[in-house]
C-alpha cells in the first residue's frame, strides 16, 4: 500500500507523524515546520506562561496603537463631516444670494425703466445715442455721446439707467 501523505519526524518529540501534523513554513525545504503542531502549541503555551509580562506588554502596545489609530480615524471622520456641512451651508448661502440678486436686478430694472419713461429728456437722449451708435468712432458720434451724458446728468438719470438705455438701443439696432 502506498502512503498518500508523507510522514515526518518531529525534531522535538522525536515522533514520526503525518506531514499534516506539521504547520506550514514556506522557508523550509518541505514547506513544513520542523516541530509538530502539538509541540509548537506546547511551546507557545510555555512561552506565554514564562513571559507573561512581555506578552501583556505586546497586547497593550497593540491596544494603544489601535486606540490612537481609531482616534485619528474619528478625528478625520468628524473633520470630513464638518467640511461637508460647511460646504452645504456655503452652497445654501450662495443660492440665497442669487435669489436676492435676481430680485434686486428686477427692482433696479423697474426703477431704471420708470426713470427713463417719466423723464421728458429721454427722447432727446435717445436721439443723441442713436447718432453716436451710427458712428461711434467719429468726432460727431463722440460729441453726441457726451451731449447725451450731460443731459442725462442734469435730468438726474442714473448712470445705470443711462447705460441700460445705451445697451438697449445698441442691441435693438442689430
Ligand atoms: Zn512533536
Word description of this protein:
This protein has helices spanning 37-50, 52-118, 122-134, 139-154, 159-173; strands at 7-9, 16-18, 22-24, 32-36. It is mainly alpha-helical and 174 residues long. A hairpin with a 6-residue loop joins strand 1 (7-9) and strand 2 (16-18). It has five helices and four strands. The radius of gyration is 45 Å and the shape is rod-shaped. It has three domains: 1-50, 2-Layer Sandwich (Wheat Germ Agglutinin (Isolectin 2), domain 1), CATH 3.30.60; 52-108; 119-173. The strands form two sheets. The chain has a two-stranded antiparallel ribbon with strand order 1-2. The site of zinc ion has 8 residues, from strand 4 and helix 1.
Helical proportion, percent range: over 70%
Largest sheet: 2 strands, antiparallel
Q: What order do the SSEs take from the amino end to the carboxyl end, as H and E?
A: EEEEHHHHH
What is bound: which ligands? zinc ion
Radius of gyration: 45 Å
Structural class: mainly alpha
State the separation between the terminal residues, measured CA to CA.
105 Å
The average pLDDT value, as a whole number, equals 84
Overall geometric form: rod-shaped
Low-confidence stretches: none
Say how many strands there are. Answer: 4
Amino acid at each position: 500500500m502506498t502512503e498518500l501523505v508523507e510522514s515526518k519526524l518531529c525534531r522535538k518529540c522525536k515522533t514520526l507523524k503525518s506531514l499534516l501534523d506539521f504547520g506550514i513554513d514556506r522557508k523550509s525545504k518541505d514547506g513544513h515546520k520542523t516541530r509538530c503542531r502539538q509541540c509548537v502549541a506546547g511551546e507557545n503555551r510555555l512561552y506565554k506562561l514564562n513571559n507573561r509580562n512581555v506578552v501583556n506588554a505586546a497586547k497593550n502596545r497593540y491596544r494603544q496603537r489601535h486606540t490612537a489609530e481609531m482616534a485619528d480615524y474619528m478625528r478625520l471622520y468628524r473633520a470630513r463631516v464638518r467640511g461637508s456641512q460647511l460646504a452645504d451651508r456655503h452652497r445654501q448661502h450662495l443660492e440665497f444670494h442669487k435669489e436676492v440678486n435676481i430680485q434686486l436686478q428686477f427692482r433696479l430694472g423697474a426703477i431704471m425703466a420708470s426713470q427713463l419713461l417719466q423723464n421728458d429728456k429721454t427722447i432727446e437722449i435717445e436721439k443723441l445715442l442713436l447718432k453716436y451708435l451710427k458712428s461711434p468712432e467719429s468726432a460727431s458720434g463722440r460729441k453726441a455721446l457726451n451731449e447725451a451724458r450731460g443731459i442725462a446728468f442734469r435730468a438726474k438719470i442714473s448712470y445705470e439707467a443711462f447705460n441700460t438705455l445705451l445697451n438697449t438701443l445698441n442691441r435693438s439696432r442689430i
